[in-house]
Amino acid sequence: MRRAGVGSLQFAFSPETSHIAARFPASFAVAQLRVRRSSQCHVLASIPFWRSHPIDTTMHTSLRPFFLFGSTVCWLAACGGGGGGGGAATSTISGQVRVPELAPAALARSEFADWQRPMLPGEVVVWLEPGHAPEQLATDGFDLVRSGGSIAVYSAQAAQGKSSLRDGATADQSSERATSDAAVAMGDRPGVRCATPNFLLQRCITPNDTFFAKQWHYPQINLPQARDLTQGSSSVIVAVLDTGIVSAHPDFAGRFVNGYDMISSAAAARDGNGRDANPEDVGDLATPQGSSFHGTHVAGTIGANGNDGVGVAGVDWNCKLMIVRVLGQGGGSVDDIANGILFAAGLANGSGQVPPQRADVINMSLGGPGLNAVLEQACDAAAAAGVLLVAAAGNDNSSQPNSPAAFASVLSVGAVDLLRSRAPYSNFSSTVDIWAPGGDMGVDRNGDGHPDGVLSCMSDDAGALFFAFENGTSMASPHVAGVAALVKAANPALTASQIRSILTATAVNGNGLPNSGKLVDALAAVQSAQGGGASVPLLVSTPSAIDFGDSATTSALGLENRGNGNLVFDNFSFQPAAPWFSGLLSDVTPANGIDLDSMAITIDRTGLANGVYQTRMTLNYLDMATMVSVDVEIRIQVGASPVSADTVFVLLVDPITLESLFETSTTAGSSFAFAMAGVAAGDYLLVAGTDRDNDNILGDDGELFGAWPSLDVPQAITITAGVNSSDLEFGMEDFVAVQSTGTTPRPTFRRKS
Description:
The chain is 12% helix and 32% strand. The protein contains 9 helices and 43 strands. The strands form 12 sheets. The chain has a 7-stranded parallel beta sheet with strand order 13-14-12-15-17-19-20, with helices on both faces. Strands 33, 34, 36, 38, 39 and 41 form a 6-stranded antiparallel beta sheet that branches. A 4-stranded antiparallel beta sheet has the order 9-10-8-11, with helices on one face. Helix 5 (334-344) packs parallel to helix 6 and helix 8 packs across helix 9 (522-530). The longest helix has 18 residues, at 473-490.
């Protein structure tokens, strides 16, 4: 057993039991570790099963870890004060900072201004106060176009004769900007309750959840368009076999039916008893750094409340969630998992209990190597009872099959990244039936300032409720389970076998997926369940994002009307402008709802400075007078990784006050090596970070930041007078914040200069 001393606070790290035993003086409150998981898989009882997500997943706003003892902030550091005083003898410390190859968070897009949104140029729509006639406002630059009731539409004379943004006008000279300014002026007039440009609203239900825009994984499977057809049904039940649930999370309000805690071992359950009717997740202590709360993230992808103005959205906004807890500390046994499957299917099981209504779909983001006969029997029985079983294929980057995903009665799900390619961790055996977004936390290809993980609900051992990015086939599987629930809602008469056939038959090509694999398509699946296409146009691009990296120059884009009507190409525009882009459309003829257009894209980096360039291309088609649009994110890189151009500042700080006492800087030219001479004896924290915004603060959002020996478990360095320290190597990571409720703000560090 390895021990780490922290002044009067000690932690005993036990690799045998994968948990942290903490001993605190009686005067100290218990501190909570908030750190990253680092193991590739979690081992379950008699057969090793993993929660199907790989390493390096949780992202939220607290620095991991730090403690708040009364009013004194300290990390895992001796509480003995920093250096800076004392005798004449000093020391030199040296080492190297590891810098990740990740696009800088500074690429995060700003929101569109009003004048950048689609509108009818020149038109201002007004809501009149009672008693005011619309004709009274048809003066001083405005002409009345039409009116009725409280609403009147005016033509802004200031916009007349100006060109549109989509016709190449500059922002300041565009009819859209003039229209927006005119609407502001109209809103200040007496008798006007409100006035806005006559914006064009598009089909596709887009939820108002705070972080929906960061859920790139839904447009990838055409989920927004599918929501025009159904948002799910409360009569459909999806069982989530996992670590349980943090039911207090606000994005689950009203969504649960009775579940069960099927963990037979009181020690593994950590709730004081064995099997019981309460599937609450009390934490699994999955790693020495803390609990995974894996089931909460998985359940959020399936069914977090949508369009409620809070947090994130799930795939299905109305299905009921049946939580069956089968994974505890150390994992989950075959016995518990098999009985959990039977319970969810409404079949006799070891608990002696069955739910009033069985689940329609079972999601299992778990697995282990080989083919287990007991689990196969349980899966076969559930399938025979009419349940569709969906499971994660595994994260071993292997072609070997796993249980339960490889069973014939289970729909096995592999993971793709933002580019629709196989995620680097995903298994790829011939038993994988379908693919879905699992993400890749190692990159930020869409330039939104966050790693390309799947965003969903999360909690921690301190009880904080927040939202986190994770990646893995565990994140892919609930996408498919959620789409299966939508299909069932679209046509309740469908059997589990028919739903499975629809999902696989309507899946579309990815980007070179193994064994000719196909990506789940929510829109096509729901349309098939309803017996045909939509009654309105539904414009779909394949893919929805293109990353050209630092060398690719050509790519192709497919455009298809998955609905009804006759779509005719009108124009395309960019935000921001992209002079390095050129595109050639082919087969641009009046479509009959099934014709496929294509765009050949060419990138020209000539004359561009080194860096990352990103734009959103909007393609606009017309169905009679109705505009139908689709957005495609495009990113290119010129020259070396932008991260390599960063200056990294290295600080020695007082572990009590967090005051910076010594500072140096380093760059890629010196391989990010550093050295500080003249360091006085004492205890210090060693931290490093970028300062891209030049605010003299390290550790704020959008920056790279790290601490020795790791950001997960920073420790104090004791400098002895006259004794040099070398080889102090540690890494940095991209700091991002989504949202955290009830957590203590993380500390930041001010540079000396």
